[in-house]
Amino acid sequence: WLIVVRWSLLRRLACSAARLASAR
């Protein structure tokens, strides 16, 4: 389950970064 949590966190960070890049 730890891997899943880490994956989810990484995915969330990637989404946030992509959104920030798009907004910029």
TrEMBL record:
It comes from the Bacteria. This is Two-component sensor/regulator. It comes from Yersinia pestis.
